[in-house]
Write a structure and sequence with these properties.
By secondary structure, the protein is α/β, with parallel strands linked by helices. The protein contains four helices and five strands, in the order H-E-E-H-E-H-E-H-E. The chain has a five-stranded mixed β-sheet with strand order 1-2-3-4-5. The protein starts with 5 loop residues before the first helix and ends in a 9-residue tail after the last strand.
Protein backbone atom coordinates (compact mmCIF):
# COMPACT_ATOMS: atom_id res chain seq x y z
CA UNK A 1 0.00 0.00 0.00
CA UNK A 2 3.05 2.24 -0.36
CA UNK A 3 2.19 5.64 -1.74
CA UNK A 4 -1.55 5.30 -1.19
CA UNK A 5 -3.51 7.57 1.09
CA UNK A 6 -6.52 6.52 3.09
CA UNK A 7 -8.81 8.34 0.67
CA UNK A 8 -7.47 6.36 -2.29
CA UNK A 9 -8.17 3.06 -0.54
CA UNK A 10 -11.90 3.67 -0.03
CA UNK A 11 -14.37 6.26 -1.24
CA UNK A 12 -17.92 6.84 -0.07
CA UNK A 13 -20.74 8.45 -2.00
CA UNK A 14 -23.75 9.30 0.14
CA UNK A 15 -27.17 9.93 -1.38
CA UNK A 16 -30.15 10.92 0.74
CA UNK A 17 -33.84 11.00 0.09
CA UNK A 18 -36.19 11.60 2.97
CA UNK A 19 -35.29 9.31 5.82
CA UNK A 20 -33.31 6.90 3.62
CA UNK A 21 -29.57 7.15 2.97
CA UNK A 22 -27.66 5.12 0.39
CA UNK A 23 -23.91 4.85 0.91
CA UNK A 24 -22.00 3.55 -2.11
CA UNK A 25 -18.58 2.27 -1.12
CA UNK A 26 -15.73 1.81 -3.59
CA UNK A 27 -12.36 0.25 -2.86
CA UNK A 28 -10.97 -1.64 0.10
CA UNK A 29 -12.68 -1.67 3.49
CA UNK A 30 -9.57 -2.46 5.49
CA UNK A 31 -7.55 -1.33 8.51
CA UNK A 32 -6.86 2.36 8.33
CA UNK A 33 -10.19 3.35 6.77
CA UNK A 34 -12.56 1.99 9.39
CA UNK A 35 -12.50 5.32 11.24
CA UNK A 36 -13.31 7.16 8.01
CA UNK A 37 -16.30 4.91 7.37
CA UNK A 38 -17.62 5.38 10.89
CA UNK A 39 -17.11 9.16 10.87
CA UNK A 40 -18.90 9.53 7.52
CA UNK A 41 -21.82 7.15 8.09
CA UNK A 42 -22.51 7.54 11.84
CA UNK A 43 -23.83 11.15 11.52
CA UNK A 44 -26.61 9.84 9.26
CA UNK A 45 -28.30 8.31 12.33
CA UNK A 46 -30.99 9.00 13.61
CA UNK A 47 -32.17 11.36 10.83
CA UNK A 48 -31.94 8.50 8.34
CA UNK A 49 -34.17 5.75 9.66
CA UNK A 50 -32.80 3.41 7.00
CA UNK A 51 -29.16 3.41 5.91
CA UNK A 52 -28.18 1.09 3.06
CA UNK A 53 -24.53 0.27 2.41
CA UNK A 54 -23.96 -0.67 -1.23
CA UNK A 55 -20.90 -2.94 -1.23
CA UNK A 56 -20.92 -3.77 -4.97
CA UNK A 57 -17.58 -2.08 -5.55
CA UNK A 58 -15.85 -3.12 -2.33
CA UNK A 59 -13.06 -5.38 -3.53
CA UNK A 60 -11.60 -6.33 -0.15
CA UNK A 61 -12.67 -6.31 3.48
CA UNK A 62 -10.59 -7.36 6.46
CA UNK A 63 -11.43 -7.80 10.14
CA UNK A 64 -11.14 -4.06 10.80
CA UNK A 65 -13.60 -3.33 8.00
CA UNK A 66 -15.91 -5.96 9.43
CA UNK A 67 -15.56 -4.28 12.81
CA UNK A 68 -16.58 -0.95 11.26
CA UNK A 69 -19.77 -2.55 9.92
CA UNK A 70 -20.58 -4.04 13.32
CA UNK A 71 -19.93 -0.70 15.02
CA UNK A 72 -22.28 1.02 12.56
CA UNK A 73 -24.90 -1.68 13.14
CA UNK A 74 -24.81 -1.04 16.90
CA UNK A 75 -24.97 2.74 16.37
CA UNK A 76 -27.97 2.33 14.05
CA UNK A 77 -29.82 0.18 16.56
CA UNK A 78 -29.08 2.62 19.39
CA UNK A 79 -30.42 5.50 17.26
CA UNK A 80 -33.59 3.63 16.27
CA UNK A 81 -32.42 3.24 12.67
CA UNK A 82 -31.70 0.23 10.51
CA UNK A 83 -28.47 -0.62 8.70
CA UNK A 84 -28.81 -2.80 5.63
CA UNK A 85 -26.21 -4.28 3.28
CA UNK A 86 -26.65 -4.58 -0.47
CA UNK A 87 -24.68 -6.19 -3.30
CA UNK A 88 -22.40 -8.44 -1.31
CA UNK A 89 -19.54 -9.93 -3.26
CA UNK A 90 -18.64 -13.58 -2.84
CA UNK A 91 -15.68 -12.95 -0.51
CA UNK A 92 -17.59 -10.49 1.68
CA UNK A 93 -20.52 -12.90 1.92
CA UNK A 94 -18.08 -15.66 2.93
CA UNK A 95 -16.50 -13.45 5.60
CA UNK A 96 -19.90 -12.54 7.03
CA UNK A 97 -20.85 -16.23 6.95
CA UNK A 98 -17.67 -17.37 8.71
CA UNK A 99 -18.24 -14.83 11.47
CA UNK A 100 -21.95 -15.72 11.73
CA UNK A 101 -22.95 -12.15 10.88
CA UNK A 102 -25.07 -12.96 7.84
CA UNK A 103 -27.95 -13.56 10.23
CA UNK A 104 -27.30 -10.31 12.09
CA UNK A 105 -27.29 -7.90 9.16
CA UNK A 106 -30.27 -7.28 6.93
CA UNK A 107 -29.15 -8.20 3.41
CA UNK A 108 -31.27 -6.74 0.63
CA UNK A 109 -31.26 -7.25 -3.09
CA UNK A 110 -30.95 -4.70 -5.83
CA UNK A 111 -34.69 -4.12 -5.85
CA UNK A 112 -34.90 -3.96 -2.07
CA UNK A 113 -34.23 -0.25 -1.87
CA UNK A 114 -37.08 2.00 -2.83
CA UNK A 115 -35.46 5.29 -3.71
CA UNK A 116 -34.92 6.91 -7.08
CA UNK A 117 -32.34 9.61 -7.64
Amino acid sequence: MAGQTTSSVLTLEIQRKGDIALVKMRGRLIAGVNGLVYSQVRPLFPDAKRVVLDLAEVVQMDSMGLGALVRLYVSAKNAGSSLELMHLGKRIRELLGLTHLLDVFTIIGERGITMKF
